Amino acid sequence: MFSSKAALRSQLLAARRVTAALSGPGLLAVAREQVEVVAARTIAVYVSMANEPQTGPLIDWLLASGREVLLPVLYADNDLGWGIAPGAADLVPGRLGLSEPPVDLGADAIASAELVICPALAVDRRGVRLGRGGGSYDRALARVSPGTPTWAVVHDSEILDELPADPHDQPVKAALTPTRLVQLG
Known about the structure:
Layout: H1 5-19, H2 24-32, H3 35-39, E1 42-44, H4 56-64, E2 68-74, E3 80-84, E4 92-93, E5 99-100, E6 115-119, E7 122-124, E8 129-130, H5 136-141, E9 150-153, E10 159-160, E11 174-176, E12 181-183
Parallel strand pairs: 1-2, 1-6, 6-9, 7-10, 9-11
Antiparallel strand pairs: 2-3, 4-5, 7-8, 11-12
Helix pairs in contact: 2-4
Catalytic activity: (6S)-5-formyl-5,6,7,8-tetrahydrofolate + ATP = (6R)-5,10-methenyltetrahydrofolate + ADP + phosphate
Organism: Kribbella koreensis
Family: Belongs to the 5-formyltetrahydrofolate cyclo-ligase family.
């Protein structure tokens, strides 16, 4: 097993730098086939950065197909608010180099989402999600309405058998990769 979450994060980030590939069209193709995406009118997602699987094509398609897309706004305490995506050209710079919507609807706006797609460095087969360590998404996922599908976006190699978990960690129900959707839990 791993000595700590911090050590595991370092290993996963190093692996992403080595194996980063264009994954946006793959995520979009997989997502478009999912009944949860087809049925949802409001979807919370995030704007990917650097070596993360690219969510841009998915966001563009969701907006073009008339969906309401909620994007996170990172607060100074690392909690997340949510705003309606106006389109990629209208995003504003946020904390830590993130791109954010210009209007914040508040932290509880995520409860209106019918599908939540969040970032992760890895997930395990039980649904344990490893983020970057700030707790932002654990707090946000705790506000999601019961029964709402929650997916973590990872590369295929980042679905692991087991990850360390803390009591505050919020599980996800599936992993969306550039090649497939894997049910967890």
